Amino acid sequence: MQNLERIPDSLGYLVISEDKAVVSSGGELENDEKTAALVYNLVQKAYRIPVMGDKRDGFKKLTINWDSFFYAITVSNNRIYVCKRQYNPQEPMVA
Amino acid sequence: MSMPECRKELKKYFNHLMSLVEGLYAIIITDRDGVPVFKVSTENAPELALRPTFLSTFGMATDQASKLGLSKNKSMISTYSAFQVVHLNKLPLIVTMVASSKTNTGMLLALERDFDNVLKDMRAVVDIS
Amino acid sequence: MEKALERQLDETMNNPGVVGVLCADKQGLCLGARGTGERQTCGLITSLAETAQKLHPDESSSPVISIETDNMQILIKSKEGITTAVYKSST
């Protein structure tokens, strides 16, 4: 799980299992069960959004972006992987 | 699957739906007279809203609403100061959801898709044809 | 009274790569939809935006949420009680 720490500009990471338990964590997200519960909830909802034309596999990547940092979230093998990363804007996020 | 196992599976599924929407207190499936076919509720649900006398009012209301010249009435949202009630017309069955007034109404309406699968089988229970 | 919003939604659809737009109010009800944006998804996007906001220590700042698949990206942002989702195709 230390691979998540090696992500550039990583501020913290979380790995959540399918029964909402924290498998491993580090950095700013160390033992952060509150964030884990929120992310679990978020992933459950994001999976329900129908994305046209794609297989019913759900999304590949989910990012939550603020001015100075962002969360990158993905699901693999029934586990949710979360990485909190510094955001150094080179070009603006178009929304 | 035996009957008690069926109920347990259904309860698990409905409880999962309830956890998806914050503030959803009860989901009740009844026939048009308000007789409950299936019910899940938390202790936050107002007792009176779970009774047949309340649930049957939608049966009459949806009939009248269908006469407004806008074709068949599909659903009704009733808002009160502390609660909101969303009814879905799936005759011969009626789905009633009781939630807090602050709950995301759009999410409650989006649950209709999840009910359709379950209702297909439940319909056989109340069908007289 | 929704003319201004309808015009804005049409303008958004004219941007390169945009295949759908959705606008929802605080209660998750649909204010407007275009293209691949389905009205029933409005409840979900409002709920998503609300939950995501709780991830920041200062809960009043609203993030930009990006959901990516192989061919599509959905961008969601909430401002002043209105949540907007833009569907952008990457093909």
UniProtKB/TrEMBL annotation, chain A:
GO MF annotation terms: guanyl-nucleotide exchange factor activity
Domain of life: Eukaryota
Oxidoreductase listed as a keyword: no
Cell location: Lysosome
Protein's GO biological process: cellular response to amino acid stimulus; positive regulation of TOR signaling
Family, similarity comment: Belongs to the LAMTOR4 family.
GO cellular component: lysosome; Ragulator complex
Record key words, sorted: Lysosome
The organism's taxonomic lineage, starting at the top: Eukaryota, Metazoa, Spiralia, Lophotrochozoa, Brachiopoda
Protein name: Late endosomal/lysosomal adaptor and MAPK and MTOR activator 4
UniProtKB/TrEMBL annotation, chain B:
Example of a GO biological process term: cellular response to amino acid stimulus
SMART domains the record matches: MAPKK1_Int (SM01278)
A single Gene Ontology CC term: Ragulator complex
Superkingdom field: Eukaryota
Family in the record: Belongs to the LAMTOR3 family.
Annotated protein name in UniProt: Ragulator complex protein LAMTOR3-A isoform X1
Organism: Lingula anatina
From TrEMBL, chain C:
Alphabetized Pfam families for the sequence: LAMTOR5
Tagged with keyword Phosphoprotein: no
Keywords: Cytoplasm, Lysosome
GO BP term, pick one: cellular response to amino acid stimulus
GO cellular component assignments: lysosome; Ragulator complex
GO-annotated molecular function: guanyl-nucleotide exchange factor activity
Main location: cytoplasm
Keyword set includes Cytoplasm: yes
Entry's localization field: Cytoplasm; Lysosome
Top-level taxon: Eukaryota
Family listed: Belongs to the LAMTOR5 family.
Protein's recorded name: Late endosomal/lysosomal adaptor and MAPK and MTOR activator 5
Organism: Lingula anatina (Brachiopod)
Gene expressing this chain: LOC106162368
